[in-house]
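pinned: reference chain
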Amino acid sequence: MNYNKKTVKDVDVAGKKVLLRCDFNVPMAKDGSGVITDDKRIRAALPTLQYLLEQGAAVIACSHMGKPKGEVKPELSLKPVAARLSELLGREVIMADDVVGADAMAKAAALQPGQVLLLENTRFEKGETKNDPELAKALASMAQLYVSDAFGAVHRAHASTAGVAEYLPAVSGFLIQKELEVIGGALDNPKRPLVAILGGSKVSSKIGVINNLLEIADTIIIGGGMAYTFSAAQGGKIGDSLFEADWQEYANEMVAKAAQKGVKLLLPVDTVCGDKFAADAKSMTVDAGMIPDGWEGMDIGPKTVELYCSAVKDAGTVIWNGPMGVFEFPAFAKGTEAVAQALSNTDAITIIGGGDSAAAVQQLGYADKMTHISTGGGASLEFMEGKELPGVACLLDR
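pinned: its structure tokens
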């Protein structure tokens, strides 16, 4: 995939109406009060937004939130986002009552340079997730330039992430530019040794990534729930641990492929297990592949922690995607925390691939020690798989 895409700095935006695709899919309070519980994604959009306004553009921002499936659901309205964005920008953000209806069209037509309009949740339109050309055309008709800055959504070809680029010149904002430069650079021309740490629950969701990284990494470290499928495939006892029976053959193939390519593939040597899946479970540490019946693996053990931490010590680049254990339960967060701490102490370029690993690093207080924390879970995974991202492919090449 070509990562060398034009950005907002490569085009003249003065006096133009710019359609800016943001990722404002923020978590909201469950009580329907419209309170945003974490505004990180709104803050992340500010550099691109402020740049466009400073350059004299009129900005029409759009985003999805949740999964309303083409229906108007008031609890998934972007009105609270408009209010928070107004506070952060220190200027009024005009809110449209719809996406491409009469209100949005009138407000977009009247928009002046230096003003911001936020369209309603793009997924209130049935055509959004189907990448309907009519919806894409209607969105594009409001503006003269399209700026994509929602990395969390670029792996989906939707009307507002890829479709509009058929009708407008399309460039990236600063968020996507950074993702492409940092992750793209790590995949294309990494500072070596390149160490990839892969965790999370399922082998099935990471097979593509492991496969692609076997071509470029020096060391691959496996943790989290997916390690038990590897363990079972090698004849280990895994008790009631997470297990994908259909993927054992793949796990063994990966081990063989790593040996053949001279890539170090590290698997846990010991496991912290619990007698039930709960924060207050009894715990004990056993050798890998020796988990008794009625117990399940919940974290990597202390010897594994030592092994994994020493593997990242002299790394040039580390990519981490997926926790080492059930980090939501403090008793089983030690492996994930140790890896986060090891990454915070290394001189390597450290890239956290969104999703749960990003949440873990934030929660454990190591976020500011990482080189880059990706803003997209699914998107960064597909990026690392070497897949083409439709929301990036549609942007103009430099």
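why pinned: Residues 174-188 form the longest helix (15 residues). The first strand starts at residue 17 and ends at 21.
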